[in-house]
Structures are given as structure tokens and as C-alpha cells.
Backbone:
């Protein structure tokens, strides 16, 4: 099975030794994306809803490099800086962008560096 890097300038460049995404067999795996402007590296959005929308934009642009979109996502892992406080607002923003059947999802509280949400995804090329 070939493993190929997936990269776009429309999402933040990696800040360490990792890829934005990898295509492996019929799957595309993304790195955890935050609400970071790809050009300025500034955080975009003050609320978890605004930041969630930006993160989903980044995931969408990575998936688009392989001809996929959010409807192809089968699994997401979500990290929230303030799990109890922000879960409802995050989930409302998420529901606006994804459709049933929703991907399986794990949502956890995490210590994040200056952001409110980080999401990674696994998508299936059909």
C-alpha cells in the first residue's frame, strides 16, 4: 500500500515533524487542525463556534486535495480546551457543516495552546 503526503497552502503548514494529511489505501488521515490563518499564523475566531468553522474549512481544503469533502469523513477526533463550557456551541457549529449519518466522533477536553478547538479526521475515498 502506498502512503502519500497530502498538502495544501490553504491550511496551516505543520509546526513540527508531521504531515497535514496522508493518503493510505482508500483512506485520507488529517493532522489535528486548529483555527490558524495559514498566512499569518494568527488564531482566527474568538468563540468555539467561529474556531470550529475555521477548523472545518481547513479539513475541507486538505480533503479537497484528494477529491474528497466533509461528507467522506468517517471518523473525527475533537479536542476542546473547555469541554463542559464549549461542548454545546461546538456541537451546534459542527452540525451546520456535517450531515447524517454523522462521522463517528470522539470529543475530549485537552490543554490546547492558545486555541479552543482542534480536530483531526479520517475520510474514505469511495
Residues:
Amino acid at each position: 500500500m502506498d502512503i502519500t503526503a497530502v498538502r495544501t497552502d490553504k491550511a496551516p503548514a505543520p509546526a513540527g515533524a508531521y504531515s497535514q494529511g496522508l493518503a493510505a489505501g482508500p483512506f485520507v488521515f488529517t493532522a489535528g487542525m486548529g483555527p490558524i490563518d495559514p498566512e499569518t499564523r494568527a488564531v482566527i475566531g474568538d468563540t468555539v463556534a467561529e474556531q470550529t468553522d475555521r477548523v472545518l474549512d481547513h479539513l475541507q481544503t486538505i480533503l479537497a486535495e484528494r477529491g474528497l469533502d466533509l461528507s467522506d469523513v468517517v471518523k473525527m477526533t475533537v479536542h476542546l480546551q473547555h469541554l463542559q463550557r464549549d461542548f454545546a456551541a461546538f456541537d451546534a457549529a459542527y452540525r451546520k457543516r456535517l450531515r447524517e449519518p454523522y462521522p463517528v466522533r470522539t470529543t475530549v477536553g485537552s490543554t490546547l495552546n492558545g486555541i479552543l478547538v482542534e480536530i483531526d479526521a479520517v475520510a474514505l475515498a469511495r
